[in-house]
């Protein structure tokens, strides 16, 4: 069982890069399941119904989100019906539309996909460590494999989550910092781990936002509207994971990176 | 002109890994200049005179630091005389011993090495962007090459610094998160850039601190003493950069990573 | 029904000031219930069994805590048996010794006392708003009156809690900033409210810590050990609240402040 | 020499309350100088040229600002000509329009008014402690009295500033938390001090923003637009300070508070 995971799709450039390369990547790697983080596709902040469909059409089976989930009001129109979209499961259950995990059938097997959000230097939502215990208690028995997109800022919280669920999920991959890390590995009890998968969007900007604006903000500390450009060179960051036949173990995790400096090889 | 930069050396395991592999790396890559970040060598927090000498003996020409610079009181005994050690230049000048940059002679050329610290999610010291302008105004004319260790938490502040000094320094490499990023590149105006070089220390822990303690802290939110283990498997993270003969431009930047899963190749 | 609440007792000076003035205050105001926040009594950080008894001996019926609850290891020796001590109820239940609320009999009436901690600029523990709902569902029916010590940093989170429980508890009083606010009032549905009651300890220092050390830290941003002085002029900050016979309503809330500039009047 | 200082005027309710009561307060207290913090007058965020004039017409001699200074673009149209408006002096000088202090003639005397912003839990601008030293070196000789509005979040940074400039300015009064503190005092070397003067605006909301919205944000952690109401009951918070004839010393500092529960007394 092989899955592909593509990091935060950022604005129009991210959308175009995804649309161009995801089919090629699927042809090359032949994954059984494709997961894409879509929290930044709507001009850098949030998602719309139309863009959700764009991601699915490009080849995603499941769309994960993050701290930008609710940035565009359009989300409220479709989140409860979007059965392939999940948002961080540790938003307060009682007050949050949508769901935090989904079980997907792939042939005879069931893959659980979970989305959680960290709290260090991010908003204080519910405890992701307690929440993952709760979700695993619910779905562990029904799932052959479990993939977790942990959307968090710090390397410490991400590594802590990795070791915390090691042997209890098949893979933990981080998102949110928009920069791919070079630490893909199989943890001692078999879980595939990567601190951050990186983003899919502008190659020549800062986190996908116009660099002039971001630098300006660091220089003058005044309010500035960050924006993602409409056109320019793109990059795609992702990873491919081979799940083992042993429950909650992976055989291999490899980085995917397509940039102007490192073009796609068939 | 080639330099090697090795990320945050963490405790006894980091020290041993550095001592073992730095000579081999120098034999393999034959750099003219070797820089090591030493902010975590003293049991994870700070540095001592004896460990500073250990790093130099292992092969470093310059030792850079970070937010842990002053964690061990021993630093006050030797920092003003340690002419190969620099701490973040944007600590308030009037109140801080030591220096934030150093010029090093390598044959006929002069290489400036600068250490700066970010402020996002770190202490509010002086502005690193204003400070780098100030330092460059002072040393630009005297230097053939300039290397900057930017010790910072977020990808945004690091990328902003990279683009801000692009074409004004030869390389900007980030430290502090202890996880190597996979985004080494040459920026448009020629500066080599890497968001984080990663750390040198324990392979099986969280940021080099005992994982049980870090996880415990995330679960119970009570005071716990983080500690780096005395023994265990190590890793080394670094990069090698080839400077161009053009001023403030690099030809190549490559990642170095030695781990139990990815052993050193001669 | 009248209660007195005394803010964070800070170190030896706080202890002495409490011991001196609490009996006099009780003689003057004749409260039926006395509550004291004790999170800083052990040299500024935490509490010990012996100091817990000191607070009770000085006249407290219930001791509340805050973010410093577990700073002194001694707490683990007695917290589970200390039936008059409560710590923030929103520490993760599964991982935290002690309890977050207590019901106290005062003649024929039952007063619930709850301790909660805010999350803005403090550690990300469990949601205090969800937790207060949960606790009120448990104890509302059994209580004639309910007092909440909300230990939090920002005025916004404290006011939000005040209005959130207005008409569901008798009084909400904030602690943690160590400076008394001048906004005591009865909220629209009857709950007495005060953003911060202030602290009980040194008068001539910063938050009760030696001012030279705190200023030094702001100037040089290096590690410095904060300490509370052993002797010096003290102050006491508190409030007195008259509960109404109407459930979850107060008639009056007044500030108490004893300082060298504003001595105790019989 | 007597001055009146009025805290952050918040939206239309703040504007109306100021317009109604400032003339009455001036008639009652007969101050020689009136200073008003105007950072929130434009619907809670920033100021416009027209509202700046409204504050002056209401009776202010100097308008101070804070972290919301640049929230409304209109500020760029008039800040450089607004000789009675100051913004935090520690915004980076090179990149910031406007000025951070002003000297005002009152009869034969010169009063310096300084505006600074803290950095704890606020944006990392320049060091307010270094900046106040720099400004005092410039203006000390020319001023008979100096008033400092220190716009900051925490009690620790505010008290630290108070003691740091004690004996070097005549008064330090904090703003930003929107809740008046009850710790007005004369520091050992003569400077009048108050941690926060409080705000002028809605009485029945949270910090002057609609309470339902603020509570909603604490419950669901989703993006919500905070807004200040157009009408409702108002409050005014301020203080009156009597400067001593001794340089950099005050004789008295008293709180001013006008609320529906505590009406204005002639
Ligand atoms: Fe993202
Ligand atoms: Fe994100
Ligand atoms: Fe480090
Ligand atoms: Fe660091
Ligand atoms: Fe406290
Ligand atoms: Fe506290
Ligand atoms: Fe304000
Ligand atoms: Fe403010």
Automatic annotation (TrEMBL), chains A, B, C, D:
<dbReference type="GO" id="GO:0046872">
    <property type="term" value="F:metal ion binding"/>
</dbReference>
<protein>
    <recommendedName>
        <fullName>Metallophosphoesterase</fullName>
    </recommendedName>
</protein>
<feature type="binding site">
    <location>
        <position position="176"/>
    </location>
    <ligand>
        <name>Fe cation 2</name>
    </ligand>
</feature>
<feature type="binding site">
    <location>
        <position position="8"/>
    </location>
    <ligand>
        <name>Fe cation 1</name>
    </ligand>
</feature>
<feature type="binding site">
    <location>
        <position position="39"/>
    </location>
    <ligand>
        <name>Fe cation 2</name>
    </ligand>
</feature>
<feature type="binding site">
    <location>
        <position position="67"/>
    </location>
    <ligand>
        <name>Fe cation 2</name>
    </ligand>
</feature>
<feature type="active site" description="Proton donor">
    <location>
        <position position="68"/>
    </location>
</feature>
<feature type="binding site">
    <location>
        <position position="40"/>
    </location>
    <ligand>
        <name>Fe cation 1</name>
    </ligand>
</feature>
<feature type="binding site">
    <location>
        <position position="178"/>
    </location>
    <ligand>
        <name>Fe cation 1</name>
    </ligand>
</feature>
<keyword id="KW-0378">Hydrolase</keyword>
<dbReference type="InterPro" id="IPR029052">
    <property type="entry name" value="Metallo-depent_PP-like"/>
</dbReference>
<feature type="binding site">
    <location>
        <position position="151"/>
    </location>
    <ligand>
        <name>Fe cation 2</name>
    </ligand>
</feature>
<dbReference type="Pfam" id="PF13277">
    <property type="entry name" value="YmdB"/>
</dbReference>
<feature type="binding site">
    <location>
        <position position="39"/>
    </location>
    <ligand>
        <name>Fe cation 1</name>
    </ligand>
</feature>
<keyword id="KW-0408">Iron</keyword>
<keyword id="KW-0479">Metal-binding</keyword>
<comment type="similarity">
    <text>Belongs to the YmdB-like family.</text>
</comment>
<dbReference type="InterPro" id="IPR005235">
    <property type="entry name" value="YmdB-like"/>
</dbReference>
<dbReference type="GO" id="GO:0004113">
    <property type="term" value="F:2',3'-cyclic-nucleotide 3'-phosphodiesterase activity"/>
</dbReference>
């Amino acid at each position: 069982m092989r899955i592909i995971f593509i990091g935060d799709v950022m604005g129009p450039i991210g959308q175009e890069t995804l649309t161009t390369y995801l089919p090629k990547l699927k042809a090359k790697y032949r994954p059984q399941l494709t997961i894409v983080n879509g929290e930044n596709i709507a001009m850098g902040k949030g998602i719309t119904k139309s863009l959700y469909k764009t991601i699915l059409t490009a080849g995603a089976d499941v769309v994960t989100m993050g701290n930008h989930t609710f940035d565009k009001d359009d989300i409220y129109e479709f989140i409860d019906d979007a059965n392939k979209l999940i948002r961080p499961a540790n938003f307060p259950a009682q007050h949050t539309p949508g769901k935090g995990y989904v079980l997907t059938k792939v042939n005879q097997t069931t893959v659980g996909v979970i989305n959680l959000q960290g709290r260090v230097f991010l908003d204080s939502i519910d405890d992701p460590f307690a929440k993952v215990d709760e979700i695993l208690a619910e779905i562990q028995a029904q799932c052959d494999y479990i993939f977790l997109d942990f959307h968090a800022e710090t390397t410490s919280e991400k590594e802590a989550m990795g070791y915390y669920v090691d042997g209890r999920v098949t893979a933990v991959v981080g998102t949110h910092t928009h920069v791919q890390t070079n630490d893909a590995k199989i943890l001692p009890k078999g879980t595939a781990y990567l601190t951050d998968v990186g983003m899919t969007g502008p190659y020549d900007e800062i986190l996908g936002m116009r660099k002039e604006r971001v630098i300006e903000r660091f220089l003058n500390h005044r309010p500035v509207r960050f924006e993602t450009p409409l056109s320019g060179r793109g990059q795609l960051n992702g990873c491919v994971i081979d799940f083992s036949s042993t429950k909650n173990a992976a055989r291999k995790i490899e980085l995917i990176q397509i940039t102007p400096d490192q073009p796609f090889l068939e």
